[in-house]
Amino acid sequence: MSETSPRLRAELEGIPTYKPGRPAASGGPVAYKLSSNENPYPPLPGVLETVTAAAGAFNRYPDMACTELMSELAERFAVPVSHVATGTGSVGVAQQLIQSTSGPGDEVIYAWRSFEAYPIITQISGATSVKVPLTPGDVHDLDAMADAITDRTRLIFVCNPNNPTGTVVRRAELERFLDRVPGDVLVVLDEAYKEFVRDLEVPDGVTLYRDRPNVCVLRTFSKAYGLAGLRIGFAIAHEPVAAALRKTAVPFGVSQLAQDAAVASLRAEDALLGRVGSLVSERTRVVDGLRGQGWTVPETQANFVWLRLGERTVDFAAVCERAGVVVRPFPGEGVRVTVGETEANDVFLKAAEMFRKEL
Length: 359
Ligand SMILES: *Cc1c(COP(=O)(O)O)cnc(C)c1O
Fold this sequence. Notes:
By secondary structure, this protein is an alpha/beta fold. The chain has helices spanning about 45-55, 65-75, 90-100, 115-125, 140-145, 170-180, 205-210, 240-250, 255-265, 270-290, 315-325, 340-359; strands at about 30-35, 85, 105-110, 130-135, 155-160, 185-190, 215-220, 235, 305, 325, 330, 335-340.
């Protein structure tokens, strides 16, 4: 047997592993999972039926071009079909965007803390991450991000609302930022939580992309549409970028189940957006409840709240877990808590209150 092992790319060393939100333990005291920003509602009956029907044909490869879904998306966003690209979750599409633009020696800029997939997919490509700290109010510092652009910059992520803080950038400041970015740098507006936004000053990325060839909008079916387990997301971008996404796609990556579920979900949008409305009401209740207890909570437009707990982060997560909810701690920084079903939010609020009283 040979002593050597296969030579792997040096870039893979030290890649942070993606930490999935911990599941709610079965049988134990923990009953609710508020750690992954998932939709707490089970699939709509109609969507489930569609997926069940599609399952009867999974001996076949899916439609590689996602034809039906692509035309549905093109129509609803009023964009050419050639501007739409689907992928295995929007994380999959984000990885293809990096693969299409960046390699060793190139730089990818994003705010920090932001979505934990960004450093991982950047490092896999061999490109260098340039992390620009959030402002003290936990908001993207767009001026500092623009200042960080060099002639090595290839891609910039703007996560709006930002995961894990829930904070947003508004129209005027985002437009000012986009005006400062050179045309050969791709700006990716990651709008995974778009449907939860109620602030009218937060722009819809699709309106910004139209006359800006270097802007790409990322959306997902995982959150508001409740299809996290089926892995489907999409991008809207101008020709060369959308075409690059088709070149870099894993062949047949998006299953027929996912495609059919996405189409059915778009057609059941009223029901799904009704659920989003309930979650937004719950968000208000949770934020008000926390503030009433004395917590400082940044304004959130997503389906989660952020508590900057610093050194007390891990203790707080443990208290929540004992109370019956799993939250998402970022040790030393803070805790992200998904807005879930009413009962889950009640358990969380009670745990937060208990923790504060013990301070
Ligand atoms: C959840 C999330 C996504 C979506 O991921 P999928 O791969 O589509 O499930 C993308 N971006 C951000 C910031 C997210 O929080």
